[in-house]
Design goal:
alpha+beta, HIT family, subunit A, 3-stranded mixed beta sheet
């Protein structure tokens, strides 16, 4: 491995990241956040996602007992808006239509996925699969994601995520689709199938079981970024067999507990599933989840993308190998339960 500053290639997108190991040895290390114990109520009468409560748009939530899905009251994509293209010289605009949904993971206001049971996490996985089945036939791209914590823009602590389904491939999806398609055409295997084989048992692995690998990818940009990928390639979450679905619960639990234990703080992140686009068989694609957490040195010190990162290319201060070891060495019991 190259010592000192170097660049690493992301084969899924073709983008590079500058790795500047050692910058965390700078004199200022930032403040250390105090340990936080969640004291949220199981039901918040002012929460617009809790059962029986009213939402801003006027609708009232049902008294749901497991999960709950509704069309976002302030959707970024809407059906029936058309695909018209307007062009005026260099000014080009394209209409985009689709739908946006909010998915509540639990009626419990005080839970996070890190503190859910394996069965409760399984209910969330079932929900993701149901939504893909429902939205896939009418939309080219179905983006399942979760913004966790105020640091990542989450306006409500109630455990929930979102789904945006649209008629075009977003830029990141298009880049991944192109790279995976080219690789499969040449090798007759998927990129992530070969990447998993190269990483299994290695120094960047955070957790693995028989079916899944949780790894800080070689090309990670965010300090404790991880990739969750099946050891046997399938295009979409809806293609998981019963063993893959079962062991995904454990993989997610192990990762999320370690995230919270890192700074003994409810760890913020943006995560999302990349399933094969809903066109063709998608055999060149391996379903995977990206986790992008912003914290760097403590609960109160973030990694911001500024300066060189905005004007040049992405850069990280700790190696993927160091980040993986720190996560791997953490307890698998949540700090609030010890």
């Amino acid at each position: 491995m190259i010592e000192g500053p170097h660049r690493r290639l992301n084969p899924l997108t073709g983008e590079w990241v500058l790795v500047s190991a050692g910058r965390t040895n700078r004199p200022w290390q930032g403040a250390t956040g105090d340990a936080v114990v969640d004291d949220l109520p199981a039901h918040d009468p002012n929460c617009y996602l809790c059962p029986r409560n009213g939402r801003v748009g006027g609708a009232q939530n049902p008294d749901y007992e497991r999960t709950f899905v509704f069309t976002n009251d302030f959707a970024a994509l809407r059906p029936g808006t058309g695909r018209r293209i307007d062009t005026d010289g260099l000014m080009v605009a394209e209409g985009e239509e689709g739908t946006c949904r909010v998915i509540c993971f639990s009626p419990r206001h005080d839970l996070t996925m890190a503190r859910m049971s394996h069965d409760e996490i399984g209910t969330v996985i079932d929900l993701w699969q149901e939504q893909l089945d429902d939205l896939g036939p009418d939309h080219r791209w179905v983006q399942i994601f979760e913004n966790r914590g105020e640091e990542m823009g989450a306006s409500n602590p109630h455990p929930h995520g979102q789904i945006w389904a649209g008629s075009i491939l977003p830029m990141q999806a298009a880049a991944e689709d192109d790279k995976q398609d080219r690789y499969f055409a040449e090798h007759r295997r998927t990129i992530l199938e070969d990447y998993v084989a190269q990483e299994v048992g290695g120094e960047r692995v955070v957790f693995e079981n028989d079916q899944w690998l949780v790894v800080v990818p070689y090309w990670a940009v965010w300090p404790f970024e991880t990739l969750v990928v099946p050891k046997r390639s399938v295009p979409r979450l809806t293609d998981l067999d019963v063993f893959q679905a079962e062991e995904l619960r454990e993989a997610l639990k192990q990762l999320l507990v370690r995230y919270d234990n890192l700074f003994e703080y409810p760890f913020p992140y943006s995560m999302g599933w990349h399933n094969a686009p809903f066109e063709g068989a998608g055999n060149h694609w391996t379903v995977h989840a990206h986790f992008y957490p912003p914290l760097l040195r403590s609960a109160s010190v973030r990694k911001f993308m500024v300066g060189y990162e905005l004007l040049g290319e992405s850069q990280r201060d700790i190696t993927a190998e160091e980040a993986a070891q720190r996560l791997r060495d953490l307890p698998d019991t949540h700090y609030t339960e010890r």
